[in-house]
Amino acid sequence: MYELFDLNEAILFGESGRLLYVSPFKFERDWNGMRHSHDFTELFFCVGGKGSFSVRDQSISVEAGDFMIVNPTIEHGESSTASAPLEYVVLGFSHINVLFHDAASGYYKGSFRSQSSLIRPLLTALIQEVSGKPDSYQAASNSILTLLFILLIQQSHFQLEPSAPALQPDQPSDHKISWIRQYIDDNFTKTVNLDLLASKIGLTKYSIIRSFNRAYGISPINYLLERRFAEARFLLRTTDNTVRQIAESLGFGSANYFSQCFQKKEGITPTQYREQARRHPSDSV
Q1: Comparing 5-162 with 173-285, is the CATH topology the same?
Q2: Most CB atoms within 10 A, among 39, 91, 139, 221?
Q3: pLDDT digits (tens, 9 = 90+) for 111-126
Q4: 106 has pLDDT over 70
Q5: What region holds the HTH araC/xylS-type domain (predicted)?
């Protein structure tokens, strides 16, 4: 499940902060996310399951009750397992710097467990405000955000200070491109094309292709295929599903087409890959 509550007009909070989006997300399968970075700060509230964040050369374990702050331009990725899928609410915001002791690391991990009974309802209320946009939702969201940060700062060791925006005005907002990547991650077994992405995010197809390539070094459709092939390899290694069943579950039109694409990508057929993986498990991961 992944939703983006994007804000055409950023919600102001604090002295200069601007909330860009709120996204509740729950992983539904084993997943190692592609490392990426943004020109804005992200704040993750882990509300269920377990997982990890890769930040630069570190792997940080997280579980329900933890929060993570990742500063602008810091490469990071999220991972989860199907046995205890990670669930979080992420806030993207700009015009504000988060200051903490180990600033060189680019991230801050803290806990909100002692304030969970207060913070969880605030997150629910914030999602309701930005998704429904009732009258005075901006003022309400401002108050919720201010209280959220007060609660976090009271029990953690970081501070906030105003900053200048880093986004380039002639480029689409990075969070929209990040949303496209996450949408593909969560829907790669379904029909996904550029027309669909453009209608959901409000960008032209050309802008999506150019910006996605700039951010991730691959086109969105090729990224979609990479996700499908990664899942195919996993299913071939770990299940007894037939090639036809795997092809259908991943959105390929037929088993023959899937086999042709797989062989072109991997150099061997799906059946050969499965046999090889079972003979030499460590070589096929």
Answers
A1: no
A2: 91
A3: 999 999 999 999 999 9
A4: yes
A5: 178-276
Helices and strands: H and E segment counts in the chain:
9, 12
- As a whole number of angstroms, the distance between CA 42 and CA 121 comes to 20
d(CA 81, CA 62): 12
Structure tokens at 64: 């329900």
* End-to-end Cα, the chain, rounded Å: 26
**CATH H-level superfamily of 5-162:** Regulatory protein AraC (2.60.120.280)
Give 169's pLDDT tier (boundaries 50, 70, 90): very low
Domain boundaries, the chain: 5-162, 173-285
Instruction: Please choose, from the candidates 30, 7, 33, 2, the residue with its C-alpha nearest in 3D space to the C-alpha of residue 18.
Output: 7
Please state, in angstroms and rounded to a whole number, the distance separating the CA atoms of residues 196 and 173.
18
How deeply is 93 buried, as exposed, middle or buried, from its count of CB atoms within 10 A (0-12, 13-18, 19+)? buried
Q: Please report how many Cα atoms fall inside a 13 Å half-sphere around the Cα of residue 10, on the Cβ side.
A: 17
Span 185-236, pLDDT tens digits: 878 888 899 999 988 888 889 889 988 888 888 999 999 999 899 889 989 9
Give the length of the chain. Answer: 285
The CATH architecture to which 173-285 belongs is: Orthogonal Bundle (1.10)
Segment among 4-8, 63-67, 135-139 with least mean pLDDT: 4-8
> Tens digit of pLDDT for each residue in 3-43?
555 555 667 776 778 888 888 888 766 666 667 777 788 99
